[in-house]
Predict the structure.
Amino acid sequence: MSQLLLLEDDLSLIDGLTYSLKKQGYEIDIARTVKEADSLWSGGKYDLLILDVSLPDGSGFDVCKKVRQVSKVPIIFLTASDEEVSMIMGLDIGGDDYITKPFKLGVLISRINALLRRTKDFNGAGTEITSNGITVLLLQGRAHKENTALDLTAVEYKLLCLFMQNPGIILTKEKILDRLWDSSGNFVDDNTLAVYIRRLRTKIEIDPGNPQMLVTIRGMGYKWNITGGDGGA
C-alpha cells in the first residue's frame, strides 16, 4: 500500500482529497504548513508527495528543494497559478507533475497512479545501467559519469534513464512525454521538453552543441547513441 504526504492548507480540499485517496487504497498523512511537512518527511517514508505551492509559511517549492537533496520520490505540485514560468520552475527544481486548481479529483488520482507506476517501472528495470562512460544506479536514484556524480534534476534523471534503457531506439517526442508525464500532462510541450534535453546534454556531453550520445533524429525524435557521431542538436 502506497503512503502519500499531502501538503495543503485548504480544509475543504483536504477533506475531499483524503476521502478520495483513502477510497483508492492509499494511506495519507496531512501537513498544513511547510514546517509540518518538513517534520513529517524527516520522520517517515513516503512513496509520493502532493505539495501545494502557496502555504502560510512558505511554498511547496521549498519542501521540494529540501527533499530533492536526498530523494527522488515523485512530487506533484498543486497551484492556483497557470503561469508557464511557474510550471517550468516547479519542474526544474525537481517536480514530476503539476496540476492547476480547480481540478477534478479523478484527474489527480490518475496522475498519482501513473507516477507511481512509472517509478516502479524505473526501479524495477535492474539495479544498474552503464554506457558511454555513464552509470545509473537505479536503486539509489543516482548517476555518475566517469566516477563523478551528475547533478541532475528529477526530470533530467528520468530522461537519462529512459534513453539509456532504450539504446539505439528512436523515441518520438510523443512517446517521451507519454512515458514521463502521460499524455494528459498537457503543460509539458515540445518547447519544454527541448529545454530539458538541452540541460541534460550540458551535463553529460563533452560538447553539448555537438552531442554524440543524446542525438536528435530530424523530424522523428531523439536517440541514445552508444557509438556516437550520428546526430546533431
In short: The first strand starts at residue 3 and ends at 7. The two ends are 43 Å apart (CA to CA). Residues 214 and 224 are 5 Å apart (CA to CA).
